[in-house]
Design a protein that fits this description.
Helix content is 78%, strand content 0%. It is mostly helical. Helix 2 packs antiparallel against helix 6 and helix 3 runs antiparallel to helix 8.
Length: 211
Amino acid sequence: MLLDLTTVPAFLLASAVVILTPGVDAFLLLRTSLRSGVRPGLLTLAGIHTASIVQVAAVISGLGALITRQPAVLAALKWIGAAYLIYLAATILRGLWLTRKESANGALDATPAPDPANPYLRGLLSNITNPKMLLFSLAFLPQFVGAAANPALQLVALGVIFLVLAAIWELTIVLAAARIADRLRHPRVAKSLDMVSAAAFLTISVGLVAG
């Protein structure tokens, strides 16, 4: 057969486990949507999936395998990815410091302003600079090629399925977060969310370099 459909059930199950595991994308989408609403959340989602499409395409074309055979390139990508996550965490912590400073000056009820950064670009950079997605795709997708007569077409189909499933889940995060945002815009809640997000980005950056 041109495609091996017998591997699809196992692929769907494995994909669901991977997609539902919280990571940078989930934290970034949750924080953006809670703070800024649906449109910035959707723009962040679009940026994330632009990067994901590029990475999956790299795996299918063979470019991904070529990159992984270059330790210096992989190491550089890891450090760039970690540096960007640290930048995101530092930006959040700076916002917390400014909010605390304003509160000390009398603006006790001030709600944190939406992030000024371009949400599409932030989503794109957070994903494209993370080589773990590329390495994951290289290790994950080929396991489900099976007995397909056209392995490249099978990889394309699997890549599309994975991206669609991820987009559905992440769209759910954006819409749900934006829906409850009004109830969570109390300064203390916003501060707690920012602290958790900053801690998550810092932890993931350490794991990226150490891994």
